[in-house]
Structure formats: structure tokens, C-alpha cells
Amino acid sequence: MKEIDRNLTEAMRQLYLVSGFRMSLFDAEGKLLCIYPEKANPFCERIQQEEQGLACCLQYDRRALERARQTGEIWIYRCHCDLYEAVAPLYDFGVLSGYLMMGQVLDTSRTSRRSVLEKASGYGIDSQQLEKAVRKIPCRTKEQIQACISIMKMCAGYLSLSNYLRAECRDLTNNVRAYLDSHYREHLTLDQLCEEFYCSRATLTSSFRRDFGESVMEYLSQIRMETAMDLLQRTDQRIGEIAVLCGYPDQNYFCRLFKRYYGKTPGEARKGR
């Protein structure tokens, strides 16, 4: 095991000892990297022995990771069996690098265990076996659960600020530029690019200008204009068709941009070939 894995596992072990929550670490693609303790509590272990139960657990995990990715914030929820869980996104210089997840505990309210039994009863597990497993689920007061989640949030913030878990693809700007080279025909916005590359607008715009001396949209316009000029001089395609091929469904708008960029209209550019 790599040194970073040992360090992270030790950090999760300490979080587990403090909170009683099982700690999991995922990469940006949702692949499990390490977990502590490795063995799930008896209830979750029994539920996951059932095909449908395991499928539901995985589905809820995926939903939680996606929600954390979309919001950029810690997400607190209850799983399909009503156990508390939480997930926090981790970042490497503004680029999503992974997730820290914690679970699965009950609160101490009178209805909690009954609710879990009701939710789990649909998996066809022997009722006595199920009741025995439910009694072994860790219980915390709602105040303790909230305190543990606050600690988790601080730990996630520390891991992000220290860039402890590095993003597999750290060369953000080169990958964005390659994406623009291949997708310039499509309608593209900064928000779409941020979603595609799991980064913030500030990170994308500042990093791109730092590396290439121009903004993302300036680079995109350059690709489109140069492609348009090439098509005008090499082919007999209509100007409207060329506009669409270069990402501009509105021909009039394309012509205005083209003249602003080259100082002449697409028609004049074609005549001068």
C-alpha cells in the first residue's frame, strides 16, 4: 500500500474512533480507495448479502456522490434503510479529486430502530436475524451526529486545502483546451466546462489565462474563426452551413463576429481566396 494510503487510512481510523461512523474514501470517479473499518456493521453486512439490498446501497452511494459533486458541499442524508450518512467533496487546487464519506449510524429517538426494521423487512431476511443485526447498529444522539459531521467537514476542508488526495488528471488547462479543440461545434459555456471537468469557474478561468495568456472563450472563438476561414477558402459550402459547423447556428451573429475578428465579411474572405 502506498504511503499516502496508509496516512489516509490512519486519519480515517482516528475519525472512526471519535465518531463511530465508518469512514470511506473515493476518487473523483466514485471508485473506493480505502475504508475503515473494512468490515461493515452486522446490519449493513447482512443487507448487502441480498442482491437487491446491495444494489440499493450502491445506488444511494452514487446519488450522494453526485449530489456532493453538484453542490460542492457536504451532503447529509439517510440511506434506504434510514441510517445516517454524509459525504463531502475533496479538491486538489480547485479540481474535484475525491470524496470522504461517513456512515452508518442511528439516532437515539424511539422510532429509529422500528423504522430501520420496517425498511429492511422487504429484503426477505429472517425477522429474528434482522432484529439482532439492528441492535448492533451504532447509535448517537442527533447532537452527536451533527458534531461528528462538523468534524468530518473540517477534515474534508483540511484534506482539500493541503491537496492531500491529488486529482488523477491535474493538467486541467491542457485537457480543457483539447476538449475545446474537439467540441468547438457544440454550444459551450463556462458552466458546462466546469461541470465536465469538476472544477470551479474561478479555477478554470484563472488557470487557463495563466497558462495560455487568453480566456477560455477567447480561445474557443479563435478555433471557430480559424476553422471558418479555412472552410471558406477550401470549400464551396454555404456561409450558413459553415456557421453551424463552427458552433454558430445564427448566421447573422456569425457574420458579425467574423468581421470583428478578421476585419472583413465571410463573403469577402471567400472572394479573396
Q: How many helices in DSSP terms? A: 13
What helical percentage do the residues reach?
55-70%
> Beta-strand percentage?
5-15%
Largest sheet: 6 strands, mixed
Termini separation comes to 62 Å
- Please write the string of helix (H) and strand (E) elements: HEEHHEEEHHEHHHHHHHH
The outline comes out as elongated
Average pLDDT metric:
86
- The SS-based structural class is alpha+beta
Tell me the number of strands. 6
Flag low-confidence runs: none
* CA radius of gyration: 26 Å
Describe it for me?
The chain is α+β, with helices and mostly antiparallel strands and 273 residues long. The chain is built from 13 helices and 6 strands. The chain has helices at 3-19, 42-47, 51-71, 112-120, 127-134, 142-161, 172-183, 190-197, 201-212, 216-234, 239-245, 251-262, 266-271; strands spanning 22-27, 32-36, 75-78, 84-92, 95-107, 139-140. Strands 1, 2, 3, 4, 5 and 6 form a 6-stranded mixed beta sheet that branches. β4 and β5 (95-107) form a beta hairpin. It is elongated, with a radius of gyration of 26 Å. The N and C termini lie far apart (62 Å). The mean pLDDT is 86.
List strands and helices in order, with pairings.
Blueprint: H1 3-19, E1 22-27, E2 32-36, H2 42-47, H3 51-71, E3 75-78, E4 84-92, E5 95-107, H4 112-120, H5 127-134, E6 139-140, H6 142-161, H7 172-183, H8 190-197, H9 201-212, H10 216-234, H11 239-245, H12 251-262, H13 266-271
Parallel strand pairs: 5-6
Antiparallel strand pairs: 1-2, 1-5, 3-4, 4-5
